[in-house]
Amino acid sequence: MQRRTLIRSAFATPLLAALPHAFAQGNWPTGKAITYLVPFPAGGTTDVLGRLIGQKLGPVLNTSVIIDNKGGAGGSVGSEIGARAAPDGYTLVGGTISSHAINVSLYPKLGYDPQKSFAPVTLIGTNPVVLVVNQASPHKTLKDVLEASKAKAGGLSSASAGTGTSQHLALELLAYKSGVKFTHIPYKGSGPAIQDVIGGQVDMMFDTTVVAGPHIQSGKLRAIAVTSAKRLASMPDVPTVAESGITGLQDFEVVSWQAIFVPAGTPAPVVQRLHTEIRTILATPEMQDKLKGFGMEPTDLGTAQIAAFQKAEVEKWAQVIKAAGIKAE
After folding, report:
1. Sequence-ordered list of residues with C-beta below 8 angstroms from that of 244, at least 6 positions apart, any chain
2. For strand 255-263 and strand 91-96, is the pairing parallel, antiparallel, or unpaired?
3. What b/e string do you get for 70-95 counting C-beta neighbours within 10 Å, with b at 16 or more?
4. pLDDT digit string (tens) for 182-195?
5. Exposure check for the chain: N or C terminus, fewer CB within 10 A?
6. How many beta carbons lie within 10 A of that of residue 251, not counting itself?
7. β-strand 34-38 against 91-96: which pairing, if any?
């Protein structure tokens, strides 16, 4: 087996060395379909953004962009598949705060390194999460939620898109800072999780404004508080967690983010072309309006800046997870 591997490596090395030059000559893309891996089920933030971007990117590159949902383990399952994909420019990975910053400190045997296994392409934007309850819930303020959770054995139930996601970490941070217990119920994505909150099977949920926003607007969910430092322009009547005035929550802030990565080793010219084309798409008034309508703050960072941002996020959440004693379930 070792000899066979060495032989393959010997033949592969000259070919891989020539790839950047070949791609630089304009041989990419060839018309082959690009797979956009979404490490969460359909209906979540990463899926919604992937489909919006994919619809625009395909025609620009004269090919098709296929969304492939591979949910599980807070984005780890799909991300591992992406990390092992060929670094040829035909696989994109929708990365999130959970899959590419949090999970490495949460799971003892993660099948990829969020920084070393990928090359950043684009930071789509950042957005806070919002605490929501069913429209029929008696809870109208954060104080109501905390008092009800104290009074209930095991605390109120709270759904999330999976262990280690921003929804989960927001809940754990709230529990840690307030001293109130909750029962965490992880799902394989935001779509099924928020449907159970709407249906009344689960008491509450922190979720991104991308997913929760439409349900708040339709009246199916009630927004309790947002996790940003200040109120959102898209939800001016919803207070921040810090505004609750509750002891220990004065500096509470959780900001989620969405990005696009490719497998490490993807030729630099391909990464740069993808970065340029996707940034151009995101800069259009139509996409800017959509992002802001979702409650997202658009960003415009270069790939090196994204890598530095990601490194800081990995370090930040490692400290939070350790301090709160959070463990993968």
Report:
1. 141, 142, 143, 225
2. antiparallel
3. bbbbbbbbbbbbbbebebbbbbbbbb
4. 999 999 888 899 99
5. N
6. 9
7. parallel
